[in-house]
Specification:
The protein is mainly beta. It is built from nine helices and 22 strands. The chain has two domains: 34 residues, no CATH class; 271 residues, Neuraminidase (6 Propeller). This is F-box domain-containing protein. It comes from Zea mays (Maize).
C-alpha cells in the first residue's frame, strides 16, 4: 500500500470542499504564493465558492502610514503599497469604517451633501450584513454647542440629519469604537475627559459613569472580543512616564471602571519615545480586531500591541517618510480582499 501511494499527494486525495475549508483558514496574503504551486490551486483560489468561505484574519491587515507604505502585523514588516495596488485608496482618506476595506475620502465626499458648517467626520459605520458600498456617516460639532449629524450613503438622495446634542461641552471627540452589532459608538471625549456612547438608532448620546484614568494624555479606544479597551499615555508632572492598556469592566451592579491589563515594557516605551522624555507627548494609533499600532510620527517609531495575548512588539523604524507623509495617512487600516485573488495571473 505504501509503495502504491508513494507518488500520490495526500492533499490531492481530499475532497475539494475540505481543501477549500482548510485553505480558507489562511490569511489572504499567505494564499498568494499558494496560487503558484499548481493550476489546481490557482483555480481553487479564484473560485466564488472558496471566496464565500473567507473571513477576515485578525493579523492580515495593512496599517497605512502613507500612500506608499503600510505596516503588516502578520509579517511584522513595513510593506511597500504598490505591491498591493488593489488595496490603495484613490485619494487622501478622512475616516475609515469598521469594515476596514472601506474608506471615506475627499473624492467620495464630493458626491455627498457638504458636511454641516463646523462639523467634522467622526466615524463611518458599515452594516454587519449588507453592501460594503453603503454606510452611515457620523459628523459632530464640539465646543459649547456640541451636536451630531448622520447621513446614510445608501439613500437615493442622502441628506445630513440633525441628531441629538452632546450632553457635555467638549473640546474634542477623539476616536470612536463601533460596537459589534453596529448599534452604537463608544467615543472618547477630551476637555474634559469622558466616555460617551452614541446610539445610532435613536440618535441620542449618553455619558457613561466611569472615572477616567488620572493623568491620561493621548489615548485610543478599541473593541476586542466584546470588551472595550483604552490605550493611553500617563503623564506625571508634565512628563509621559508610561503607556497603559485598560479594559472596561462592569461586572458589578451600577459600577463601571477601567481595569489595568497591561503596561508597555520599558524597552518598548523607550523605543516609542525615541529619547524625547519630557517633550514627546502624543502618538497616533490604529486598530483592527485587537491589534493596535502606536506611532510616534515625529521620530517615525512604531510599536504594536496584541490584546489576544497581551504582547508588545517593536516594529521596524521608518526612514522613507518625509514630514508631510508622516502625519498624513496613519490611522486607517485596509484588509486584503478577494480582489487580490481574482487578480492572480
Amino acid at each position: 500500500m505504501a509503495s502504491a501511494d508513494a507518488g500520490t499527494c495526500p492533499w490531492d486525495a481530499l475532497p475539494l470542499h475540505l481543501q477549500e475549508r482548510i485553505l480558507s483558514l489562511l490569511p489572504i496574503t499567505e494564499l498568494l504564493p499558494v496560487a503558484a504551486v499548481s493550476r489546481a490551486f490557482h483555480r481553487l483560489l479564484r473560485s466564488p465558492t472558496f471566496h464565500a468561505l473567507l473571513s477576515p484574519h485578525r493579523l492580515d491587515a495593512f496599517f497605512l502610514l502613507s500612500p506608499r507604505l503600510a505596516v503588516h502585523p502578520l509579517s511584522r514588516r513595513v510593506r511597500t503599497m504598490p505591491a498591493f495596488a488593489a488595496l490603495s485608496p484613490p485619494s487622501y482618506p478622512l475616516v475609515s469604517s469598521p469594515s476596514p476595506s472601506l474608506l471615506i475620502t475627499c473624492a467620495s465626499l464630493q458626491f455627498l451633501p457638504p458636511i454641516p458648517d463646523g462639523a467634522y467626520l467622526l466615524s463611518a459605520i458599515v452594516p454587519s450584513r449588507g453592501s460594503s458600498t453603503s454606510c452611515t456617516l457620523v459628523a459632530v460639532i464640539t465646543g459649547a454647542a456640541a451636536r451630531s449629524y448622520t447621513l446614510d450613503t445608501g439613500d437615493p438622495s442622502p441628506q445630513w440629519a440633525s441628531r441629538g446634542d452632546l450632553p457635555l461641552s467638549l473640546t474634542l471627540l477623539e476616536n470612536a469604537a463601533v460596537s459589534g452589532d453596529r448599534s452604537k459608538l463608544f467615543v472618547l471625549g477630551r476637555g474634559p475627559e469622558a466616555l460617551l456612547v452614541f446610539h445610532l438608532v435613536t440618535g441620542t448620546w449618553e455619558v457613561l459613569h466611569v472615572v477616567m484614568p488620572q493623568g491620561l494624555t493621548t489615548a485610543h479606544l478599541f473593541l476586542f472580543d466584546g470588551s472595550l479597551f483604552l490605550v493611553g499615555g500617563i503623564e506625571s508632572f508634565g512628563v509621559v512616564d508610561r503607556v497603559v492598556v485598560w479594559r472596561l469592566d462592569d461586572d458589578k451592579v451600577e459600577e463601571v471602571w477601567w481595569r489595568e491589563v497591561s503596561v508597555m515594557p520599558t524597552e518598548v516605551f523607550d523605543e516609542l519615545l525615541a529619547g524625547r522624555f519630557g517633550r514627546f507627548w502624543h502618538f497616533q494609533a490604529a486598530d483592527r480586531l485587537g491589534i493596535v499600532c502606536l506611532y510616534n510620527a515625529v521620530d517615525r517609531r512604531l510599536v504594536m500591541f496584541d490584546a489576544a495575548d497581551g504582547m508588545w512588539t517593536v516594529l521596524p523604524r521608518l526612514s522613507a517618510l518625509d514630514a508631510c507623509e508622516s502625519f498624513r495617512w496613519f490611522g486607517h487600516v485596509l484588509e486584503p480582499g478577494v480582489e487580490i485573488l481574482m487578480g492572480l495571473r
